Automatic annotation (TrEMBL):
Keywords: ATP-binding, Nucleotide-binding, Transport. Residues 354-363 have a biased composition (Basic and acidic residues). GO terms for cellular component: ATP-binding cassette (ABC) transporter complex, substrate-binding subunit-containing. Residues 344-363, 369-398 are annotated as: Disordered. This is ABC transporter ATP-binding protein. Residues 5-235 form the ABC transporter domain. One of its GO terms (molecular function) is ABC-type transporter activity. InterPro entries: AAA+_ATPase (IPR003593), ABC_transporter-like_ATP-bd (IPR003439), ABC_transporter-like_CS (IPR017871), ABC_transpr_MalK/UgpC-like (IPR047641), Mo/tungstate-bd_C_term_dom (IPR008995), P-loop_NTPase (IPR027417), Transp-assoc_OB_typ2 (IPR013611).
Length: 447
């Protein structure tokens, strides 16, 4: 009953020459809960719709239990889908909506026990007599979910099914979906742009960017060994700190990574991962420090593999159970284009693009649609804009975010000692690929 779903080099174009999914290969195992994760527009729904048979595959093949399935109609695939924009039959009560697929499947049977059991799991027993127009958006979404799960299909395909719910309900249903799909052992493909949802639900997570698979691994592995800057920045809160640095590896001295005004001296003896950084000597790299890699403490408190730097408090963000402190350390952050919030900085002056038409044409192809993973040149790096009057006291946003407890009294302008734990150091090369820890299979991690 459970299904293997395989995508082999699957591409999708809606418009000639524009690929929204680019040679995607995935082997989804029977009973697996696979999450497709990525920012808006990266092609998640398109992949799900191709698996469901609602969208043609432009190139490549989809196999269900090993059988070629590109041309199989949706009804022959025995999959239940919960859409991002779900639709209920407006003239049917919740009970009839949920029971509808059961009645189609087994016209002589009584759908009531299954409908009641499903409603209980979703906490919508009281809503069974109502019509969709009498339900809130979140309630409708739960009824739509009920309709998909009441029937026990070979696979569930869920497209952001929790997006209309408040945080409490979302957490409740998240746990419910997880236990339900595991109880039933049904293969599930779940689409979301919420990394915490992906991490808590998925057996494996497939991270997509611009229609291109970035990494496919278990939640622990995508967090601990992100293959590139995009995955590192997309997964984890607060967002990983990404600083531009240069590797210094003098033949007769200690190796270090310069971060503009300060540097991280790599402790001797060098770990094998740090030794491998020697080939980056003199090159610009991107240093990734998650919040657990940095703590506020004096150099005297340093443990082995911790090195001291310092930071000037730029901004303190109170979060209740913790505080995020934004420091200026004199380094420059690297920019991951899709993940940047719009900056309130000065307007960027448009530069004439070389080539004009040619560039615009190139932009329409799939490869350029994805663009570089990381951009080291940022408009604010260009130096002062002569057309803009200089403000008196520029408010710097800080280049390093550190988590601390709310009892620590920190104010903007304070100079604070920091310890960086180099056991948690990530280094990415100029193109954004991870070079430290070295890109190889490490035992002890899932996948
Ligand atoms: N029918 C269509 N015709 C043309 N382009 C489309 C069509 N459907 C989707 N696209 C484009 O394909 C790309 C991927 O869309 P898709 O809906 O798969 O993204 P998504 O990852 O699900 O995004 P979101 O998180 O916003 O739902 C987008 O650039 C979108 O504009
Ligand atoms: Mg979508």
């Amino acid at each position: 009953m459970t299904r293997t779903i395989s995508l082999n080099q699957v591409s999708k174009s809606y418009t000639r020459g524009v690929r929204v999914v680019e040679r995607l290969s995935l082997d989804i195992r029977p009973g697996e809960f696979l999450v497709l994760l990525g920012p808006s527009g990266c092609g998640k729904s398109t992949v799900l719709r191709m698996i469901a048979g609602l969208e043609d595959v432009t190139e490549g093949e989809i196999r269900l239990d090993g059988e070629y399935a590109n041309d199989l109609p949706p009804s022959a695939r025995d999959m239940a889908m919960v859409f991002q924009n779900f639709a209920l039959y407006p003239n049917m009560t919740s009970r009839d909506n949920i029971g509808f697929p059961l009645r189609i499947e087994n016209p002589g049977g009584d759908p009531r026990p299954r409908v009641d059991a499903t409603a209980r799991r979703l906490g919508i027993e009281d809503l069974l007599g109502r019509f969709p127009a009498q339900l809130s958006g979140g309630e409708r979404q739960r009824v739509a979910m009920g309709r998909a799960i009441a029937r026990h299909p070979s696979a569930f395909l869920m497209d952001e099914p929790l997006s209309n719910l408040d945080a409490k309900l979302r957490n409740h249903l998240r746990a419910e979906i997880s236990s339900l799909t595991r109880d039933l052992g049904v293969t599930t493909v779940y689409v979301t742009h919420d990394q915490s949802e992906a991490m808590s639900l998925g057996d494996r997570v497939a991270v997509l960017r611009g229609g291109v698979l970035q990494q496919l691994a278990g939640p622990r592995a995508v967090y601990r060994l992100p293959e590139n800057v995009f995955v590192a920045a997309f997964i984890g809160t607060p967002r990983i700190n990404l600083l531009r640095g240069t590797v210094r590896a003098p033949l007769d001295g200690a190796m270090s990574i310069s971060l503009g005004r300060q540097y991280l001296r790599l402790p001797e003896p060098l770990s094998s991962d740090h030794q491998l950084l020697r080939v980056q000597q003199g090159r610009e790299v991107i240093v990734g420090l998650r919040s657990e890699a940095v703590r506020i403490a004096s150099p005297a408190a340093a443990r082995p593999r911790e090195v001291a730097i310092s930071g000037l408090v730029a901004h303190v963000e109170f979060q209740g159970h913790e505080v995020l402190v934004h420091f200026n350390t004199g380094s420059r952050p690297a920019v991951v284009p899709e993940l940047e919030a719009p900056r309130p900085a000065r307007p960027v002056r448009r530069r004439r693009r070389d080539g004009g038409v040619l560039d615009r044409l190139r932009e329409r192809t799939g490869t350029l649609r994805a663009g570089p993973v990381v951009v080291l040149e940022h408009p604010t790096d260009e130096g002062p804009d002569p057309e803009e009057p200089r403000s008196e006291a520029p408010r710097l946003p800080g280049d390093l975010v550190v988590r601390t407890t709310p009892d620590m009294a920190l104010r903007p302008g304070m100079h604070v000692p920091l310890l960086v734990d180099l056991a948690h150091l990530f280094v990415f090369d100029r193109s954004g690929q991870r070079v430290c820890p070295a890109p190889q299979y490490l035992p002890g991690l899932d996948e």
